[in-house]
């Protein structure tokens, strides 16, 4: 203080990276042996050790996925660190990148971390791989040959149960491989083939027949198409498949229709209803019979206080397939969650599950897809250049990998905070996201990939 009238001082932060806790640094400068209560070891030892470490600049080491087969290591120039980098298993120096390269496996990554952290007399700051990438690396490269063989044997055993069905015999080779890929991934897959997705979805539901009933979510205009495919290819009757087209159908509650006409309610009455009423009306004349309509025709009867009741079908009914439109699914997410469908097929997921931050109805329905045991998303478009729109599809398929939207946005969407809030419209770490999607989430084959399996025109 210029006036020296107060007891405050201004702390100089220009040398903050070379100092330790202000209390200890101040005591060291004045020769005061009293230190803070955080120190348990002898005073001189702590002061000298911390002061030496504080004078060493941090060496930053960053791990990043360079390609589908390589992990790059960028390290600040430090002669002491060089021997540790050279001793890493299967490591090599890339002159073009000016980085060290190791194989993209969970074992190589773990060994590199172990050898770097034991380097002596280094103040190291390590930027590790993301948790999602580490999990995928373990799933794809950390399994032993025995575990891989067990998975393949389980897949072929499941296929053996349906190999004699007409549906399986109809599939093309690429469609059969798609079903196998879905089974390897424990029945959770995003299928984005250019063609042939619906038949693969039917085989998917047939493999998990023990977990029926099946919930099919699709646009309203394709409900009848799904109904026809299910009845044609699967061992079910028409009575086993229910299409929910309105509130009554999905909830199974009565719908009261009140059509007002000059103060009266209009009730539709058939001939059978009128015959039942005639038993109690003995004064009816014979001429009234001539006015009766056919059994298939209806007559509007105006009765005060009458209401039409239309019984629906409950989600807890014994139907084997429930086909529901996107609109109804959003509106009745609570009822669908209570029903707890174990097998779910979602058609046109790129539109229905497109991430919309303000869509509350969609957020309420997400647990229905996350909690089901088997989930197949059928998508006509999958664009990795727009990672923001993909978040909902990724999170419902693999909640263990994508559980925090803000972390996802900062890591893959290059999130930037401005005066209006956070902007998640960018892209970052695309190589990493592509690796995760290709290995555990997505299966996409274009017409060029399967051209040899298509019929000649």
Automatic annotation (TrEMBL):
GO molecular function: ATP binding; hydrolase activity
Ranges of biased composition (kind: Acidic residues): 287-298
GO terms (BP aspect): DNA repair; replication fork processing
Any single Gene Ontology cellular-component annotation: nuclear replication fork
InterPro entries, per database record: P-loop_NTPase, SNF2-like_sf
Domain of life per record: Eukaryota
The name this protein goes by in its record: SNF2 N-terminal domain-containing protein
Organism whose genome encodes this protein: Circinella minor
High-level lineage: Eukaryota, Fungi, Fungi incertae sedis, Mucoromycota, Mucoromycotina
């Amino acid at each position: 203080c210029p006036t020296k009238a107060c007891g405050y001082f201004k702390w100089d932060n220009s040398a903050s990276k070379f100092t330790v806790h202000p209390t200890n640094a101040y005591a060291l400068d004045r020769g005061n042996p009293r230190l803070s209560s955080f120190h348990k070891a002898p005073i001189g030892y702590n002061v000298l050790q911390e002061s030496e470490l504080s004078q060493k600049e941090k060496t930053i080491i960053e791990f990043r996925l360079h390609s589908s087969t390589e992990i790059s290591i960028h390290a600040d120039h430090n002669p002491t660190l060089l021997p540790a980098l050279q001793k890493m298993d299967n490591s090599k120096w890339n002159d073009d990148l000016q980085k060290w390269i190791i194989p993209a496996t969970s074992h190589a990554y773990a060994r590199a971390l172990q050898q770097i952290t034991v380097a002596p007399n280094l103040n190291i700051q390590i930027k590790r791989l993301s948790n999602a990438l580490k999990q995928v690396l373990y799933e794809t490269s950390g399994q032993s040959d025995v575990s891989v063989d067990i998975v393949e044997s389980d897949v072929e055993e499941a296929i053996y149960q349906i190999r004699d069905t007409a549906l399986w015999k109809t599939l093309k080779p690429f469609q059969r491989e798609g079903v196998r890929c879905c089974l390897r991934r424990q029945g959770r897959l995003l299928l984005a083939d250019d063609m042939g997705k619906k038949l693969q979805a039917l085989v998917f539901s047939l493999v998990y027949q023990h977990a029926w009933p099946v919930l099919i979510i699709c646009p309203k205009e394709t409900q009848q198409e799904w109904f026809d495919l299910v009845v044609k290819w699967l061992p079910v009757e028409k009575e086993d498949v229910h299409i929910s087209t309105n509130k009554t159908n999905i909830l199974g509650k009565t719908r009261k229709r009140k059509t007002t006409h000059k103060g009266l309610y209009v009730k539709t009455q058939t001939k059978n209803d009128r015959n039942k009423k005639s038993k109690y009306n003995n004064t009816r004349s014979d001429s009234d019979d001539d006015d009766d309509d056919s059994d298939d025709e209806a007559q509007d009867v105006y009765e005060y206080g009458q209401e039409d009741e239309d019984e629906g079908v409950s989600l807890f009914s014994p139907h084997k397939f429930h086909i529901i439109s996107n609109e109804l699914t959003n509106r009745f997410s609570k009822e669908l969650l209570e029903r707890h469908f174990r097998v779910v097929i979602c058609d046109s997921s790129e539109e229905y599950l497109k991430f919309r931050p303000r869509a509350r109805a969609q957020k309420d329905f997400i647990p229905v897809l996350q909690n089901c045991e088997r989930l197949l998303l059928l998508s006509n478009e999958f664009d990795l250049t727009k990672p923001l729109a993909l978040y909902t599809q990724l999170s419902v398929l693999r909640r263990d990998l994508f559980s925090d939207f803000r972390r996802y946005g900062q890591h893959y969407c290059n999130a930037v905070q401005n005066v209006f809030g956070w902007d998640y419209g960018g892209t970052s770490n695309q190589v990493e996201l592509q690796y995760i999607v290709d290995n555990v989430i997505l299966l996409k084959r274009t017409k060029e990939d399967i051209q040899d399996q298509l019929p000649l025109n």
